[in-house]
């Protein structure tokens, strides 16, 4: 069995609304359950007003992780660079984000750095991105992808951008598997690891964030692969089927 990832792991999405925060929480929940110290870093939170819960607090609620850090918050739901500029606030640079992650890594077994949107969304007006954070940290990146039509292109582009920068893609997780998957979603289970040239490291069902913490952790264990601390093993031919996903999702519920 593969040993669960340690050190720093950067979590990106192929876009917004793909389940990135839920996947981050699931990885954190498994690490907490294994007795490991976990820190979650959200460099830039957008679209949330002061006093409202953000992604970091959602990860804490679902996982029980004790250290959840947000470096900056901007009220408008825009790319961090644009949101910072419009709010008249300083942006979070990749250097600042990488420095904060390195400090957390000195005191925790696992640090999860959750981006905003996709890999190349700009943090600042100099063009800094989450990819630059991963490069500075020499950390692998986990890609959270959508389930349905269009996800193969977005995943392939993200993986290609990582390869071009010399950053390792640890794997791909489908962050919000629909209750009634269509033909494209079912076919994508086999095609996602091919276009990413990285393993399919898990599938989490849509609505997972509505579960209480204990059931969420059980779902995470069944829905994530061993390299992320879970129990989900691929079939012998390394091709995932709809029935394989359904078995694990239903077992968690």
Write the layout of secondary structure elements.
Elements: E1 7-13, H1 20-33, E2 38-46, H2 55-63, E3 67-74, H3 80-87, H4 94-105, E4 110-118, H5 130-137, E5 141-145, H6 151-164, E6 169-177, H7 183-196, E7 200-205, H8 213-223, H9 242-252
How would you explain this protein's 3D organization?
- By secondary structure, this protein is an alpha/beta fold.
- It has one domain: 3-Layer(aba) Sandwich (Rossmann fold), CATH 3.40.50.300.
- Helices cover 40% and strands 21% of the residues.
- It has 9 helices and 7 strands.
- The chain has helices at residues 20-33, 55-63, 80-87, 94-105, 130-137, 151-164, 183-196, 213-223, 242-252; strands spanning 7-13, 38-46, 67-74, 110-118, 141-145, 169-177, 200-205.
- It has a 7-stranded parallel sheet, sandwiched between helices.
- α6 links the parallel β5 and β6 (169-177).
- α6 (151-164) packs parallel to α7.
- It is globular, with a radius of gyration of 17 Å.
- Residues 236-240 have low confidence and may be disordered.
């Amino acid at each position: 069995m593969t040993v669960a990832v340690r050190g720093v792991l950067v979590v990106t999405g192929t876009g917004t609304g793909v389940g990135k925060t839920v996947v981050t929480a699931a990885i954190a929940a498994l690490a907490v359950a294994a007795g490991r110290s976990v820190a979650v870093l959200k460099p830039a939170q957008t679209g949330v007003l002061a006093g409202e819960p953000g992604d970091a607090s959602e990860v804490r609620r679902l996982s029980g992780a004790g250290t959840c850090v947000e470096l900056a918050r901007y009220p408008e739901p825009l790319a961090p660079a644009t949101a910072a500029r419009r709010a008249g606030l300083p942006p979070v640079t990749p250097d600042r984000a990488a420095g904060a992650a390195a400090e957390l890594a000195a005191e925790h077994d696992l640090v999860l750095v959750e981006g905003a949107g996709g890999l190349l969304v700009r943090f600042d007006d100099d063009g800094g991105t989450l990819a630059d954070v991963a490069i500075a940290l020499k950390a692998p990146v986990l890609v959270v992808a959508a389930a349905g039509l269009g996800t193969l292109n977005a995943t392939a582009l993200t993986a290609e951008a990582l390869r071009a920068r010399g950053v390792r893609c640890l794997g791909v997780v489908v962050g919000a598997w629909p209750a009634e998957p269509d033909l494209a979603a079912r076919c994508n289970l086999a095609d996602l690891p091919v276009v990413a040239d990285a393993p399919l490291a898990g599938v989490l069902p849509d609505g997972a964030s509505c579960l209480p913490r204990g059931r969420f952790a059980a779902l995470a264990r069944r829905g994530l692969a061993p390299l992320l601390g879970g129990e989900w093993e691929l079939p012998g031919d390394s091709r995932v089927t709809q029935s394989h996903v359904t078995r694990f999702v239903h077992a968690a519920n």
